[in-house]
């Protein structure tokens, strides 16, 4: 399975990201070439004021700043700039850089990172000024000789994520018992760990609520009840949505045959996958790949 990846950004030296796991820089005016569509090996967080379109998974998102945006490496994305005038900042970091139990939980829970949500928040002038101040600090620290710059930049990333949650808190999310919330977070963590499917011979192992319940050492009824209580959706719906999201990415960004994709996603027969995909999306996989939807 050969997934199209694009780890480079036009005009940006990626050496430090490879060596240190992070990079912060001031955005320059866009070049003529768009940032090509593909998956990356890093998260990208930015504050941008400019007119652009972002292809994010199977969606096209129009952004006209000031906007705070965040790119999840599991979601293929590309950028098309419609204006030569652009200002702002960006911070890139690898999954291994932003470590720690609390930080990982913050990252996974942020609406900017969840694969099902739009990866951007429109800002007013006051909010943009505050966020810009944090990015300025990151760039200043990044360009300095400060020995603890990695920890300082981690703190800045955390502050931006928390500010994003303050600006755009989760909608209609009541307080739940800690047990239900905890098992739901563990379920989503286990679900996301299976993706993306990129290596030859890699196949999805957990596809049914019973599989996840066994992996979490809880009864499937308890898992279903907890996930439904916290999210409002059944466990099976979350699993199906994530499988279909990965199927779309594989159809659009790999040269794998539909039979290979079906096998990787755990379907015994290609026809089962075709029917599953069409039932949820309304389109056959082959039609979706050719853009006939």
Describe the structure.
This protein has 293 residues and is of the alpha+beta class. It folds into two domains: 15-167, Regulatory protein AraC (Jelly Rolls), CATH 2.60.120; 178-289, Arc Repressor Mutant, subunit A, CATH 1.10.10.60. It contains eleven helices and nine strands. The protein has helices spanning 15-20, 101-109, 125-142, 149-167, 178-192, 209-216, 220-231, 235-253, 258-264, 270-281, 285-289, and strands at residues 22-26, 35-38, 43-49, 51-56, 59-64, 67-71, 77-81, 87-93, 120-122. The strands form two sheets. The protein has a five-stranded antiparallel β-sheet with strand order 1-8-3-6-9. A four-stranded antiparallel β-sheet has the order 2-7-4-5, with no helix packed on it. Helix 3 (125-142) runs antiparallel to helix 4, helix 5 (178-192) crosses helix 6 (209-216) and helix 6 crosses helix 7 (220-231). The longest helix is centred in the middle third of the chain and has 19 residues, at 149-167. It is globular and about 55 Å long. It starts with 14 loop residues before the first helix and ends with a helix. It holds the Pfam family HTH_18.
- The SSE string, one letter per element, is HEEEEEEEEHEHHHHHHHHH
Protein structure class: alpha+beta
Strand content: 15-25%
* Total count of strands: 9
The CATH class of the largest domain turns out to be: Mainly Beta
Radius of gyration: 20 Å
| Largest sheet properties | 5 strands, antiparallel
Shape: globular
Side by side, the strands of the main sheet go: 1-8-3-6-9
Low-confidence stretches: 2-7, 32-38, 172-177
CATH superfamily of the largest domain: Regulatory protein AraC
């Amino acid at each position: 399975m050969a997934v199209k990846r694009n780890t480079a950004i036009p005009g940006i030296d990626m050496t430090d990201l490879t060596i240190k796991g992070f990079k912060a820089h001031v955005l320059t005016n866009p070049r003529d070439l768009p940032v090509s569509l593909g998956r990356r090996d890093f998260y990208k967080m930015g504050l941008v004021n400019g007119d652009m379109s972002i292809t994010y998974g199977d969606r096209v998102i129009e952004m006209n700043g000031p906007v705070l945006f965040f790119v999840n490496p599991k979601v293929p994305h590309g950028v098309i700039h419609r204006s030569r005038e652009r200002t702002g900042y960006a911070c890139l970091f690898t999954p291994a850089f932003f470590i720690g139990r609390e930080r990982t939980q913050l990252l996974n829970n942020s609406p900017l990172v969840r694969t099902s949500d739009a990866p951007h928040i429109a800002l007013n002038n006051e909010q943009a000024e505050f966020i810009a101040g944090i990015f300025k600090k990151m760039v200043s620290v990044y360009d300095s000789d400060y020995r603890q710059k990695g920890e300082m930049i981690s703190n800045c990333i955390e502050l931006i994520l928390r500010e994003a949650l303050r600006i755009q808190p989760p909608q209609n999310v009541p307080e739940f018992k800690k047990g239900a919330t905890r098992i739901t977070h563990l379920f989503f963590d286990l679900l996301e760990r299976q993706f993306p499917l990129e290596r030859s011979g890699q196949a999805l192992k957990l596809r049914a609520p019973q599989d996840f319940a066994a992996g979490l050492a809880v009864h499937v009824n308890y898992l279903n009840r907890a996930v439904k209580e916290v999210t409002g959706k059944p466990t099976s719906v979350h699993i199906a949505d994530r499988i279909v999201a990965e199927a779309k990415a594989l159809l659009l960004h790999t040269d794998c045959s539909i039979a290979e994709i079906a096998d990787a996603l755990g379907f015994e027969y290609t026809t089962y996958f075709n029917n599953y995909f069409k039932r949820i999306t309304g389109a056959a996989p082959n039609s979706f790949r050719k853009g006939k939807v």
